[in-house]
């Protein structure tokens, strides 16, 4: 019998003996709920020199362990007298075993892990095993939720030991959109969002960088584009963007960059007015002008040096083509080519797709592109559903991949959508064919920025995004059938976010709600 087999036998025997408990107990406070959890009834205490050892030499792992330890300590002073503790209850460290040397973060990376606290072979240590360093990062997040500072023992404590956790995500794409066009978000604010995403095991930050209102990112190929920023100080340099990507990667998070074309692009013309159909009719981008596609090519060329995620998002939503037909020059161009405005929209989207493909990207487009000409889209397209139900069904039936973000359930700017609806939103609704289910690569909650800036973004995202995060991580049969059953555990996670410096709003209330009155965090 192999090592894993013998561990499973011990685990089953302990369950039968009643030493361990298993399943969705109200005592288990981990968020999102792991695939398999068992626990016991004893306490462990982390020694003052609690450290880690690993077969995998990696700065990513070392930094993640140090961050985790700081998160558990939360600036408390550890002043316990360790000589008073039974030595068998002391945990000296965490041993981490990673089987793959490949440290590249990319879509579909193996994020599974196994966590045993304490290790049966070395009871003074916890044991974390993963295929990749990114699985180990997820395991560290779970370990951090088992630990807390006890004001009684004045030490970092783990209850309900021994723990055995086997875990892996249900979906490979678990996203959060941020919008830096409607309001500029300073780099430290974006980094705080990335940190909070990692606590909930979200793994894609969709960066909606530019839109009608502003163009804040430096594009070296076309340096006047960021003339469309709100002000000189509300801009991101190439180095800023690369720093954000690197910061996210160290936390197991990919950054999906978006340029939305041909609509939502008025700000492009501030620096390059020839991108507008005319001075008085400024979007969508001018379909008749070759310069338009040269600029898109330049942007995506520059993106390829910064954003190394497999996908790029090309938008394609809410395109009002009336400027094309009311501008004589463009109207004549259309007439010469025998195109009407909807055909011109298709021409634009497909040409932008080909440019992205030439830079090595696969493409994500908003669902209107599929609704209007789905059979013409590149087979490397992922369709991003946002308008409503039934679209994901049709997308996967056509053989294309899909990301679910239906606005009635997963738009964070809809403050009247409660967390219970975020939790209950099922990406595979009415998709029963197993092959088609695999084409739904995941989902994303969207934090559109019209009423959000650095002052209120955290409490608008959290805790509702955490409800969706569990839907995307936890196996379907482990999810609560009634969201009410996880209220206490979500409140616990919300309080944990507060303790970690994340301004998550109360669970009792709608988006961005304030506490209704005095009381414990866990009751609000």
Automatic annotation (TrEMBL):
The active site is at 318 (proton donor). Its EC number is 3.2.1.52. InterPro entries: Beta_hexosaminidase_sua/sub, GH, Glyco_hydro_20_cat, Hex-like_dom2, HEX_eukaryotic_N. Keywords: Glycoprotein, Glycosidase, Hydrolase, Signal. Residues 1-23 form the signal peptide. The keyword Repeat does not apply. GO terms for cellular component: membrane. Belongs to the glycosyl hydrolase 20 family. This is Beta-hexosaminidase. It comes from Gossypium darwinii (Darwin's cotton).
